[in-house]
Amino acid sequence: MTLLASPTNSSPYPEMLGQDQLLLLQEEGISVRELRNGCLGSFRNLVEKIFNSWSIGELSVVRNWGRSQVEAQTVIYENSACLLPDDIILLKKEVEAVSSYKVVTWNVNSVRSRMNVLLQWLETHQPEVVCLQETKVEDSMFPAWELEQAGYHSCWYGQKTYNGVAILSRQPLTDIRKGFENGYDSENARLISGIWKGIRIINVYVPQGQNTESEKFVYKLEFLKQLFLEITSGTYSDLPMIMVGDFNVALDSGDVNDPEAMMGHVSYHPREHERMNAFLNPNPSKSEQTQLHDIFRCFDSREHQFTWWDFRTRGFERGEGMRIDHILASSSLLTLMKSCTIDSHVRGGEKPSDHAPVICEIEI
DNA sequence: ATGGTAGTTGAACTA
Question: Which of A97, A178, A220, A299 could form a disulfide with A207 if both were Cys (CB 3.0 to 4.6 A apart)?
Answer without folding.
Answer: A220
